[in-house]
Amino acid sequence: MKKCVNPEHPHCTQWVMPGDSNCASGHPQAAAAPSSFDLISALRCARPAQSGAAGALVYPEAAPVALRPHLHVSGFDPRAAGGRQAIKIELRGMPADSAPLITMQLQSALIPHGGSRHSFVRTLRGDWRPLFIEFSSRGLEHGQYQIEVELHSQQDGRVTQKWACTLVILVPRADATLTEIHQIFLSTHKNVRVMADDAAIAKVNAQAGGGRLDIDVTARNASIAHLNLDAKPGKVDMGFSTIAWDEDLIEIDVPAQAEPHPHPSGAACLVNAAPEAGAQRQVRLFALDECVLGRFEQYDPEADVLLTHFGDDGQDRQGLTRRLSGRHALIRRGSGGFEIEDVSRYGLLLDGVWPGKGKPVPLRLGMRIELSASIKGIAVLSVTALLPNGVVMHRVDQGAHAECFYFLEPGKHPGFPVGAFPAAPRAAVMPLLFHFNGGFWHLDPVTGKETALTPATALDKLCQFPRHVRFASDPYPECWIQRSSAGALRLGQLAHELHTA
Prior knowledge:
Oligomer: single chain
Shape: elongated
Helix content: under 10%
Number of helices: 4
Strand order of the largest sheet: 26-28-29-30-31-19-18-35
Largest sheet: 8 strands, mixed
CATH topology of the largest domain: Tumour Suppressor Smad4
C-alpha cells in the first residue's frame, strides 16, 4: 500500500489499496509507470494461451516502458589531477526511429584544441557502441569545467534531430583527499540518499563515531546492496576508484533547412576589374574547417592559400617565394575564435615573435603575420577584422593592392542585426559575407537581406560592393593550377569569366 498522492490534497494521509485508483477518501490517484518487477510479475502470473495447431504458448504483451534519452558517463577518476583521463560515454534511451549513426560534438577547455567530434554507431543488437573520450587536466586550475555536448541525427545529409547536454568535470586540488573529492562530487552530481527500487533490498547499518558520513546506496534490477559500517569513534573514509552518472539529453528543435546553395563552393574569389585607390584586385574567400597557407605552386599545390612574394617589379613566383614552405601555417576555428599555427620549416613571426612550431595562437585585431621567420618581407599579413563568423586579413607588403582574404567558418551565420565587431577602417567598409548551405552569401547589414553569390549575381547592386566586381568560383581565377588530388586541371577563369561579363 501507499499513501494518497493527489496533488490537490497534499495533506491527505489515507492509504491506497493495491489496485485501487482512489484513496479511502475518494481522491483519484495518478497511474504510476509499471516497474520492471511489475512487468515480470505480470508475465509470470499470466496464464498462457494456446494458439495455432502447433499449440504454441502466447503470453500477453507487456506495456513498453518509455526511456529517456541520456548519456551514461563512467570511469571518471578525479584523483588523477594533472594527469591523463579517459571516460566512457554510453548512449542510452534513444528513440527507435533515430538514425543508425549519431555524431557527437564536444567543446571544453579540457579537450585538446577546444573540441572534438565523435560518432555513435548502432550495433546489430540494437544498442550503441560506447565511446572513450580522453582529456588532460595538466596545468589547469582546480575547479569545475564544463563539457558542452551536442548530438546530431542525420538523414540524407541533413540534421533531423538534435540533443544537447552539459557535463561538469571536477578537477580537484593536487593535495585533495579522496573523501573531499567524493563529497564534492556528491554535492554537485547526486542527492545523498539510500534507495531500493524494483523489489530490491538496500540495507544500511552504520555507526560512526560522531563524525560526518555521506552515503549513497542504490539497489536496482532485483539486486541486493548491503552496507554495514561499525567503526569505533573516529573518522571513516570510504570512496570509490571511479565515479559514474547519468546526464539527461535535452532535445532541441531543428528548424527547417533552406534550399541548397545555387552555386556551392568552399573557396572562391571576388575579382575587381577596375580597382579604385586602396582597393584590392582579388578578394579571396575561404570557408574550410582548416585552411592551409603555403607557397604558390602551379602543379599539385599543398596549400589552399597560395602566397607569393611581391617585389619592386610586381609579383615574383620564384625567388623569395621558394623560401615559403608548401604547408607553412594553418588557420582554423578554435574554442575561443580563429587561431593560427606554424607548421613550416622556416617559421613565422606573430608581432615579431616566433610562437613555436605546432602551437596554436589566437588571432587578434592588428596582429602582424610575417612569413617567414628567417627572411623578412616575403609575405606579410595583418588581421583587419574579427567577424562573428570569421576573420579578414590584408597584405601589408608590396602586394597590398593585389589581394586580401576572408576566412569564414563553414555553415556559420553572423546573425541579424549584426552587432559591433572589431575592425580596421579598410575592413569595415568591405561587404559582410558568410558561408551557409555549402556556398557564399552576402548579408545586407541594414535590411538583413541575404543574397547568394554566384557568377551570375549582379554584385554592384549589393551593399558595400564597388563597381566592376564579379564572383569567380575559383580562389585563383587568374592562374592555371593543376591539382593532382582532384584529378583534373583547374583552368583559370580570368579569360572566360571576365571577358564574358
